[in-house]
Write a structure and sequence with these properties.
- With about 250 residues, the chain is mostly helical.
- The protein is about 80% helix and about 0% strand.
- Among the domains are: about 55 residues, Alpha Horseshoe (Serine Threonine Protein Phosphatase 5, Tetratricopeptide repeat); about 80 residues, Serine Threonine Protein Phosphatase 5, Tetratricopeptide repeat (Alpha Horseshoe), CATH 1.25.40.
- The chain contains 14 helices and no strands.
- Helix 10 runs antiparallel to helix 11.
- The longest helix has 25 residues.
- The radius of gyration is 26 Å and the shape is elongated.
- The chain starts with a helix and ends with a helix.
Length: about 250
Amino acid sequence: MEENREKAKYMSKPNLRAVKKFSTEADKLREQSMYKDAVAIYLNAILIDRNDVNSYYGLGLCYKSLGNYAKAIKTLEKATELKPDFYEAFYELGICHLLEGIPCGAIKNFVCAIRINPENPSAILQLGVAHELCEEEDMALMIYQKLIENTPNYIKAYEHKSRLLMKLKRYKEACAVLINLIKIVPTYADAYLGIATCLEKTGNKSDAQRYYRKFINQRPQLNQAQFAKNRLKDLKQKSKNIGYLSLV
């Protein structure tokens, strides 16, 4: 009986100094990408203190980096149970659900993250991605647009919205988004390539050529530059053929 009381007393008072030591050591290993070693040490910390939220969070990140998303989800969920206002844990939970191929499961975690920190655009963007992967394109577009309106310099929102519009073959709308993007960042080369593609798709071949040239001038060494040169060459040839046929 006395022995049991001593054991209960020991278990009820974890050695917080040891927990801190293990957790700090594991954090350093994780930052050095030594994920398997970090996992073992995080587990040591958790064995001492089952309520050490930082160790659960670090452990979840390690499982994520090792590609074990199911374990990462389970571990990060524990971190959110222990700390319901843990923005980073909810955000990473959402990312792990996306990586595990469960986009609809990611939505609720990104929503929780946004409620905790509505000023951080990252979770809002990923919420749009999750809706997009759930084939809820209209919702995704609305989220991207809201993000553009509320955070006009957040480039990723323009990227995602324009890509989705192009995927939906709404080329004129995508072109407008990309034109707004280069007003913010005139040197954003991919936007010029996107605009050229959209213009070509809508039949505006002369302007498409102009934007292909702008892309090539911006990034002549990129792999896509050869694609742009090929499209430019093809459009020029088609223009010549049309001109030749019109004279016959």
